[in-house]
Amino acid sequence: xxxxxxxxxxxxxxxxxxxxxxxxxxxxxxxxxxxxxxxxxxxxxxxxxxxxxxxxxxxxxxxxxxxxxxxxxxxxxxxxxxxxxxxxxxxxxxxxxxxxxxxxxxxxxxxxxxxxxxxxxxxxxxxxxxxxxxxxxxxxxxxxxxxxxxxxxxxxxxxxxxxxxxxxxxxxxxxxxxxxxxxxxxxxxxxxxxxxxxxxxxxxxxxxxxxxxxxxxxxxxxxxxxxxxxxxxxxxxxxxxxxxxxxxxxxxxxxxxxxxxxxxxxxxxxxxxxxxxxxxxxxxxxxxxxxxxxxxx
Length: 297
Description:
Elements: E1 3-4, E2 8-14, E3 17-22, H1 26-34, H2 38-61, E4 68-71, E5 76-79, H3 88-115, H4 119-135, H5 143-156, H6 158-183, H7 186-219, H8 221-228, E6 233-239, H9 244-249, E7 256-262, E8 268-273, H10 274-284, H11 290-296
Parallel strand pairs: 3-4, 6-7
Antiparallel strand pairs: 1-2, 2-3, 4-5, 7-8
Helix pairs in contact: 2-3, 2-4, 3-4, 3-5, 5-6, 6-7
GO cellular component, one term: membrane
Membrane topology: Multi-pass membrane protein
Domain CBS: 231-289
């Protein structure tokens, strides 16, 4: 089943998970066809799809629902509203599942290559090694970037970690494009440039989605606390002039936050719970200073 949207094409549905193809991906497909690599692009597409299915399978074991998968040249982006902002260890395990699947396939075809050598086995080794190790690069939203984001979120919070990695991705992709133009052949540089553009587009989409899902998870924290009854606490100390947005940027995953508000002399003015902070933001806005929220409480 194929349906179309503004810039995407839905190609199939697997157990209520929509698999879509960005129209921009037609560019490398056409290039591959032009150079006579029909079998190669079909095999690469199948490997990328199974790479994402490995993520989905592991995610389902941890109760994480994947609603949509968008396929790119380097892999895909599995979108979930229940993963970002929660347990970083779960995100790491789910993110490593795809590259691990391709690594196992690479080893399998290396064994087959020892028994009977052919172009098919050679290409499968090459394709799986590329998908595996390329996706482990610390670029966002590659699996390596998500693993690094989950690790950094323990120290800097999800929003800050996402922002840092997105900026790093932009810088490295521009650097890679410049290097490929000067150091590689025309065909190689075209492929690298297209690949870098895909990563930039995916990083921008993932960054916007992460901010939205983070806020959605924050607003549902009161319900989560009632369900779990006990949560670990992250204590923050801030000046009275700090805004609610700045506080949110310091939030860590899987923690309930309590703020101690002080004045410029270090005197404690009071405390604000995470639930009170959220209610204050709903009433007064994201850029409200915590002193005003404290007075309302």
